[in-house]
Write a structure and sequence with these properties.
The protein is mostly helical. Helix content is 69%, strand content 7%. It has helices spanning 2-35, 37-42, 47-67, 73-99; strands spanning 114-118, 123-126. A hairpin with a 4-residue loop joins strand 1 and strand 2.
Length: 127
C-alpha cells in the first residue's frame, strides 16, 4: 500500500516537474518571439499590414496568456521591457507611415458605359 502511495506522489511530482519545464520552454519561446518583433515591425509597409500585425501580436499575447504560465517578478520585468521596445517600434513605424504622402485617388475606368439612372426604378442601366 505504501508503495502505491509513494508511486502516486512520485508521479504527481514528475507531472509538476514536467509542467514546470514546459512552462519554462513556453516562456522562453514567447520571449524569443517578442525579441524578434522590432525587426518584423520594420517590414511593415502599409496601414493594412500594420493593422494585421497588431491583430497577430494580440493573438500571440492571448495564446501565451491562455497557457497560464506563472511568472516570477524578473520574468514580468523582462516582458514589460520587451513590451516597451515593441511599443516604441510600433510608434516609430506609425509616425514614419504618417509622414509618407498618401497615394493619389485611384481612377477607375468604366469598361462598360453607364447610362443615367432611372429614378423610378432605382437602377443604373448599362448602355
Amino acid at each position: 500500500m505504501k508503495s502505491k502511495i509513494y508511486s502516486t506522489i512520485l508521479a504527481g511530482a514528475a507531472v509538476i516537474g514536467l509542467s514546470a519545464c514546459s512552462a519554462h520552454e513556453d516562456y522562453d519561446a514567447y520571449v524569443e518571439t517578442l525579441k524578434s518583433q522590432p525587426a518584423v515591425i520594420d517590414t511593415i509597409s502599409s496601414p493594412a499590414s500594420y493593422a494585421a500585425y497588431l491583430d497577430t501580436l494580440a493573438m500571440k499575447a492571448d495564446a501565451f496568456e491562455q497557457l497560464g504560465v506563472k511568472l516570477d517578478p524578473t520574468q514580468k520585468e523582462e516582458l514589460a521591457a520587451l513590451s516597451m521596445q515593441i511599443q516604441q517600434a510600433l510608434t516609430d513605424k506609425y509616425n514614419q507611415m504618417a509622414q509618407e504622402p498618401a497615394c493619389e485617388q485611384t481612377v477607375f475606368e468604366a469598361s462598360i458605359p453607364v447610362g443615367p439612372a432611372d429614378p423610378s426604378a432605382g437602377v443604373v442601366e448599362l448602355d
